[in-house]
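Q: What structure does this chain adopt?
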Amino acid sequence: MGAYIALIYGVIVFAILVIIGLVRFIFSQEKGNEKMQEIAGAIREGAMAFLNRQYKTIGILALIVAIIIIIANYFGNLSKGSSQAASIAFHIGFAFITGALCSAISGYLGMYIAVNSNVRAAAGARKGLNRALQIALRGGAVTGLAVTALSLLGVATLFLLYGGASGKENLIKEAPSLIVGFGFGASFVALFAQLGGGIYTKAADVGADLVGKVEAGIPEDDPRNPAVVADLVGDNVGDCAGRGADLFESTAAENIGAMILGVALYPVFGWKGILFPLVARAIGIVSSVIGLFFVNTKDESKDPMKALNKGYFVTTILNLIVLIFIVKAMLSGKLPNGQEVNWWLLYGCAVTGIILSYIFVWLTDFYTSYHYRPVQEIAKASTTGPATNIITGMSVGMESTALPVIFISIAIYIAYKLGEHALPGFANGGLYGTAIATMGMLSTCAYILAMDTFGPITDNAGGITEMSGAPEEVRNVTDRLDACGNTTKALTKGYAIGSAALATFLLFSAYLDEVKKILGRPLESWFSVDIGKPEVFIGAFIGAMVVYLFSSTAIRAVGRAAQYVILEVRRQFKEIPGIMEGRAKPDYAKCVDIVTKGALKEMVVPGMIVVIAPILVGILLGKEAAAGFLMIGTIAGVILALFLNNGGGAWDNAKKFIELGNYGGKRSDAHKAAVVGDTVGDPCKDTAGPSLHVLVKLISTITLVFVSLFR
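A:
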């Protein structure tokens, strides 16, 4: 075990050193002129103020939940004796606090670097596309590496502290169940970070667009718009801090779920089956770092997306090669009947996950890029007004759920069957195959997250160049990077929901393993969930309902918070003379403060619905009903997230397609209709949709943490 532990911690140290190097590179770049620095300073101040206030709110909620976790697990395990119950409760509670803290740190780091990279990317655009591209992507890479390294550090350290380093079989097998609190803590912070950030960014965006573009007829990112700084702040709090926390909890929860499944295969692989997910994650970090340094564009006229795709391709190929040796070294062995494990089939599971990630990226691009039919259909429908734009956009969003569900199903089936044939006679063999597929899909997580954070950095860079009155050639560079960033943000959302779908199947299986332990059944036995039982059917019904209720409250929260912004912008246009002529400066800080208060106020109710509902179902209706809640809630959550993400992204790019000069271009009737459609899609793709990624994993981790309390 020592060599693998050394590898894991060696990679963590390597990631920290790379982060330090990237930060030094970013801070050594020029910050542009005084006007650019002033605008960037306002964005930075607003973003950090929001994050500090948000984390205070989340911290209070997390402390209350930690106390509930400790009390619930103490009484839920009293049958094992009071000292044993106290030990279990403390371990899970401490893991929850650690997971929440690490998730918050990862979001904070991502935000801090993003708001310091934006002005440098804008200034770098004066020296050409490649310089700005390098600054923006390396700023995003800090987030990607910090998130994945922190997740790996937290899970590995808790595993060792909770018995993984003891060398005793019973303690090693028990450790993964004790660290489930880490995944729940990460999920808890991620939900509120994504939800609060999503409400903020879309309330500011909707307010700025409706009053600025539609009512006043001024361009996007126009410095005369009082909500424009709040809008730029929103790009960071929604897409940097929120998505960073989202993918942090993805990697943490999925590692823990795979480790729990590895316990059932201890007779075959020993501790290697438990440790494999952490080693696979470490390899993915190294591959992502190498892939990042392959990104460059010598030809300034080329699409920067091609350079990013080259880095993604290199990262994927490296993972495919190295995973051969890791799977062979860790997942070889003999079955109880003396037969050798076919590790090539297990490697095939990893390949299945990697291929699925590529398919999801392509499908998301097809449904959200203006190069393809779906978005062009919405743009064409805009020529007859907002109603036909919205109708067509809804149909595209619904259509976009079909192929992803089919490919997820195929991937789960292939990985399950490969695992089953590699480990014949083990009930968990197929499930472990899906766990390996999930590890394969998440092997590129650090690089994907770098591309995601690249989006808001380039978006901010475009806003800064626009507001500072930079020359046309500089704005052309930032506009190209901004368009590329919009694509990467959409692709990351598709990747996140695809990995969430695989992960929740994995976490559902881990939940059933925990139920079997509590009931005293062998881990290789089956535990069936009978949907025909009234309690189970009711639990499943409630699971689907909670997904829609949560989405409703999240979208309504954006509408309410946006109303505050709209009224404030209208007030300033009316009461501050000279704004429209450029003689007076709007009160940007007032809008930032209004959106901050509104977002933090509105995020609490939808977040607490998700936390409370599965616990009540388990306590009142039982373990099997909680499994029904988890199963159907996951299915409904994944499909609705696909609809919201892809539909919203398609509406957004239909507007951009028209702005390029199609169907009358800017300020045409088609453009006005497309702006309305984009406004409808905004809370779908940036608030409710991304929050559902977290929801489907949160209900999995929360049931794992509270399962001992369920009747």
